[in-house]
Amino acid sequence: MKNFSTNLLFFIICSLFTQKLFSQNSPFSGFGLGILAPQGNIAQQSMGSVGVSTSNSFWVNTLNPALLVRNGSVIFDAGYNFKLQQLRSERAEQGFTTGNFNYAILALPITKKWTSAIGLQPYSYLEYLTETSAKVENSDFFAYYTFKGEGGLNNLFWANGFTPIKHLNVGVKMSYLFGNLTRESVTELIASGQNSRIAFLQRDNFNQVVWAFGVVYRYPLEKDRKFLNFGLTYDLSAQMKTKRFEAFEKRDFFGNNLIAPSFVDTLTIIKGKTAFPSRLRIGASYEKLNHYTLHAEIISQNWSTFKKFDVPDNQLTNRLTIAIGGEWTPEFSSNKFWNRSTYRIGFNHTPQIFQIEGKTLAETNLSMGVSLAFSGGQGKLTYLHLGIIAGQRGNLAHNGLQERFVETRLGISLSDVLWFYRPKID
Q: How far apart are the first and last CA of the chain?
């Protein structure tokens, strides 16, 4: 079992350095800061991305820092995504695959009433590529147009959870958001076998510290067995530091290979701010300890207030997400492998994430998963998390474009209550 945990941990750590492995194309990522990456760990993502009101001691809750205090041992969590994607319009259909790092987190109990955690998790991603062509009027030229976007934001965070009084937990999370988003428009003119490509490049670099606060109240219905939980988190709004680089490039090709641009005209390098909206998450759950939990949550984030260099993105709207989910462990202390494993299912729906040409665009997904429990000896426990999420953005009849995806997720939680204990010889 020790070799199994070590090899799997090595595999996931190597994945941290390969954030994008395959091609991807998501036109809906072209707005704002891009498509928001899934929040929480894979156990939470497998039940609708819920978990603001309750957690357990076997993996790290990243949705609400107040729940970190339930981790009484040192825990390392890591996860990875593999995604199958299908884009459909009224005239065409395309499929893509991609693999992405999901998160890496280390939680450390400081005292019985204080647990701290550090971690890295993607916040958003930008990845689209569209092409079109047309004949240039009153000339022999034929023009090809390419619009491309790539990049994303990452979240490096430090979170702390405390228990000031019995049944009440509070927490604070400091996140450092950083990354860049690059958009470019390329025009290629072809006539008599000759071609020239001119690209307009715009790259925005972001960095900012963002604060979030959380609170959880755990009301006991039956002593040490059944609980009714209420949780809330609030992410403060911020003005992210933004640096923009704009330039024209003339690009020469040898065959299909791009040679270094033969001409670069830097138009501007400016510094400004990006207005980042606050986020409120409220949830409740019914828990039978180590047996089953039922969750319900509402998440609100008003992206209509988003501005970059004081310019709003009119396609962005207030997002109100409804999420429900549940998990079930047949028999936590069983010697039978499948009985002590945990099974999950969830649903997540956002009726309005964009508004394009007056038509709203929704996102819906269903999820399920399992956490497989492996004992590593005295004081050690390993969970292997497997999850699958099937979802859809947009509607072909309503929006003229539809994105469907199936994501499989792999994660691991390694816990050891003896990591910081030194053996003594009497």
A: 30
